[in-house]
Write a structure and sequence with these properties.
214 residues, mainly beta, Rossmann fold, 2 helices, 32% strand, PglD_N, AcTrfase_PglD-like
Length: 214
């Protein structure tokens, strides 16, 4: 991406601050944050203030944007709300300490790849995906739009994470497994079989715990 462009981070949260740190490591100037929480309006983190609510993005048409919100469903909703009033240019942020070779890996706009993560070969990562710290993504994996992968997750080869999936910290996924749209694997889970859409799995081996609204 063009590091001369200025960035606005959507979401003033702990992860938003981590994305600020990531952007600064890339040499990108962070203009500020946008957040709908009234309590954080006007608050400044380092040198970057909360500039307004999310819909005020239209006041900064020359900036790049990234949505730094962990929940896949909320992140998708924010994107849809932004898209309803136009379409800014979204940044794709890959930490310099991540191992990613664009010859072997495709990454969509608005995605965030954090420090220590390794993506090997023939991997497709969709748009507005978050892959957090120290994850490993194996060969031929497919990660669809709005997926969140928490820190220290091991994704084996030929795994498919469908749109809006969420994988908790320290989880492991066996080769060839598919997680259906909107599903979730809980923290520390060891997944050895496919997960139906909008289903939460926990444990070792992970088992179905409950279904959640689509």
């Amino acid at each position: 991406m063009d590091v001369s462009k200025r960035l606005i981070i959507v979401g003033f949260s702990g992860f938003g601050k981590e994305v600020y740190w990531l952007a600064r490591r890339l040499g990108i100037t962070v203009v500020g944050f946008l957040d709908d929480n009234p309590a954080v309006q006007g608050v400044t983190y380092r040198d970057s203030p909360v500039l307004g609510t999310v819909d005020s993005w239209v006041n900064y048409p020359d900036c790049l944007y990234v949505i730094a919100v962990g929940s896949p469903r909320i992140r998708k909703k924010i994107y849809e709300n932004i898209a309803a009033s136009g379409m800014p240019q979204f940044a794709t942020l890959i930490d310099p300490a991540a191992v990613v070779n664009s010859e072997f890996v495709s990454i969509g706009e608005g995605s965030i790849i954090c420090a220590g993560t390794i993506l090997t070969v023939d991997i497709v990562v969709g748009a507005h995906v978050i892959i957090n710290l120290n994850c490993t993504i194996g060969h031929d994996a497919v990660i669809r739009d709005f997926v969140t992968v928490a820190p220290l997750v091991a994704v084996s080869g030929n795994v498919k994470l469908s749109e809006c999936c969420e994988v908790g910290t320290g989880a492991s996924i066996r080769q060839g497994v598919t997680l259906g749209q909107g599903s979730m694997l809980g923290m520390g889970g060891v997944l050895t079989k496919n997960v139906a859409e909008n289903t939460v799995f926990f444990g070792n081996p992970a088992k179905a715990f409950k279904t959640i609204a689509g």
